[in-house]
Write a structure and sequence with these properties.
The protein is an alpha/beta fold and 540 residues long. Among the domains are: 1-9 and 39-153, Rossmann fold, CATH 3.40.50; 402-531, ANL, C-terminal domain (GMP Synthetase, Chain A, domain 3, 2-Layer Sandwich), CATH 3.30.300.30. Helix content is 33%, strand content 24%. It has 17 helices and 26 strands. Helix 1 packs antiparallel against helix 2, helix 2 (39-55) packs across helix 3 and helix 9 packs across helix 10 (284-292).
């Protein structure tokens, strides 16, 4: 039987994988749940997927959605789309049916390919929108005879990635193949990535962080990638010991979970050259346990709209520049823009703007949002930061999250850094609330730590009466804990920055990557204020 995969002559992303297959067909490309896929077999799978899509009527500019867990099928589908000049839309598998339905209605994909785990979920949303839903076989798409016509070029859009939706409805950032290739160059320079590297991917591939910081750059560069279906700290530690990866990416919440695992202190993590993190502020308390073990943690700064690598702190630089997210990546320009104009002086705070080949083309079907985000080719990130005299960049906070109190700017991330060093509560965030005197003031929103029986003064077999007695002390306990939290800031930050109160919630609403949905927190607090108005003025 003739080889259905012709000599790679295209300029699309799939062609780069094929070239590695031509040079190193037996090298491992992907590993997943005990099965390894060589570059030769992976390249054949991409051809089969492209053929399957073409037979389903997918062509240039058509959009194909995917709903499923982390699996090689996600990468095959994206690269099959790149072959055809089509657009790949990964759906966040943690969203509810109404959220998926909104994205599908907005994006209008021609096809929704679904993992068997989500067939019932997809049938529900498919019945309520115009997208054709097709099942995905457990071991991949059916092979086709021969290869379809190759249409993809660097100019073709290839990834439609919807933002996390930390404010209102998400927006669809459209990235072309040239942007993905430029981001791969940024990744290569951030990691010194080579074909001998081994990458462990444990965070979601439906976000650009999981897909583009290391995974796709590794595959485009001939390296091996081990994919975890979902993040599990115990499995992560085991596979670092057994599979011996050289690189991985963990968001701060995942870093904390691994460090808290009972096996962390004794685990052999020596194969790792470093760990990259990002997606939200990175407290030193989270990275500290890794540095103590001699394992450096670098940072990636960027967003869905920047593919995402715009600024990076290499692991060999991290110890000397605590708190910094690095310097501009190879294919990017970065400027810090103040109200007075572009190019802030060292130490001046302003909004970060990014320009380069890896920037989004547009927001899907949203010209107004596109015009607001792009100025003369510069993407306005909405993040506030500053640089020191040597050009090292520091992120202060999201511009929309900045609290203006009595004319002074307060960045919640600075306060959250202090709170991260404490174990008084399970979770915290800082938001601004209206204040009659100061305009707004910062408050801590906290989740109580789960109390032990000893902490409650209970013994095994205690009856309900004893439990009721313990519950009667909750309010007093909250007051004591709140006072202790507020004391953490004494001598650490100026008084005008210090939080004025602690508000308790049962849990903090978060995105799939662990970012706190602050707009939801603020909405909860506003609802409470409406229900129980408080006219007290806050002292300062």
């Amino acid at each position: 039987m003739s080889d259905p995969r012709p000599l790679a002559t295209g300029a699309d992303l799939a062609a780069r994988v094929e070239r590695w297959a031509d040079h190193c067909p037996g090298a491992t490309a992907l590993a997943f749940e005990g099965v390894e896929h060589t570059y030769g077999s992976f390249a054949d799978q991409i051809v089969a997927t492209a053929g399957w899509l073409a037979a389903a009527g997918i062509g240039e500019g058509d959009c194909v959605a995917w709903l499923g867990p982390n699996r090689p099928a996600a990468l095959r589908l994206m690269l099959g789309c790149s072959w055809l000049g089509a657009i790949y839309l990964p759906l966040n598998s943690r969203l509810a049916p109404p959220e998926h339905r909104w994205i599908l209605d907005h994006a209008g994909p021609s096809l929704l390919a679904v993992d068997t785990e989500f067939e019932e979920h997809a049938a529900l949303i498919g019945a309520q929108c115009d997208t054709r839903v097709v099942p995905d076989e457990p071991h991949g798409f059916s092979a086709t005879e021969g290869a379809p016509a190759r249409r993809g070029t660097p100019a073709h859009p290839v990834l439609l990635a919807y933002t996390s939706g930390t404010t209102g409805h998400p927006k669809g950032a459209l990235l072309d193949q040239a942007a993905m290739a430029a981001n791969a160059v940024n990744s290569t320079h951030a990691h010194d990535l080579t074909s001998t590297d081994r990458v462990l991917t444990a965070i979601p591939l439906f976000h650009v962080g999981g897909l583009n910081i290391q995974t796709l750059p590794a595959v485009l560069g001939g390296a091996a990638v081990l994919i975890h279906r979902a993040f599990d700290p115990g499995l992560f530690i085991s596979d670092v010991e057994q599979w011996q990866p050289t690189w991985t990416v963990l968001v701060p919440a995942a870093l904390a979970a691994v460090a808290a695992h009972p096996r962390f202190a004794s685990a052999d993590l020596g194969s790792l050259r470093g760990i990259m993190t990002g997606s939200s502020p990175v407290p030193s308390a989270v990275t500290g346990p890794y540095f103590e073990r001699g394992l450096p943690v670098g940072q990636i700064y960027g967003s869905t709209e920047t593919a995402p690598i715009a600024v990076h702190l290499r692991c060999d630089e991290a110890a000397d520049h605590p708190g910094s997210c690095g310097k501009p990546s190879t294919m990017c320009e970065v400027r810090i823009v103040t109200d007075a104009g572009p190019d802030a002086l060292p130490g001046e705070h302003g909004e970060l703007w990014v320009r380069g080949q890896s920037i989004l083309r547009e927001y899907w079907r949203d010209p107004l949002a596109t015009a607001e985000a792009l100025t003369d080719g510069w993407f306005r990130t909405g993040d506030v930061g500053h640089a020191d005299a040597s050009g090292w960049i520091f992120i202060d906070d999201r511009r929309k999250d900045m609290i203006i109190s009595g004319g002074e700017n307060i960045y919640p991330a600075e306060l959250e850094e202090v709170l991260a060093r404490s174990d008084l509560v399970a979770e915290t965030t800082v938001v601004g609330v209206p204040d009659e005197r100061w305009g707004e003031v910062p408050v801590i929103v906290a989740v109580r730590a789960a109390p032990s029986a000893d902490a409650l003064g209970l013994e095994a077999g205690s009856d309900d009466a004893e439990s009721d007695d313990a519950e009667s002390d909750d309010a007093e306990s909250d007051d004591v804990t709140a006072a202790a939290l507020l004391r953490l800031f004494d001598g650490q930050l100026a008084r005008f920055k210090q939080p004025k109160a602690v508000i308790w919630l049962d849990e903090l609403p978060r995105t799939a990557l662990g970012k706190v949905r602050k707009h939801e927190v603020k909405a909860m607090l506003a609802e409470r204020r409406t229900a129980t108005p408080d006219d007290r003025r806050t002292a300062r």
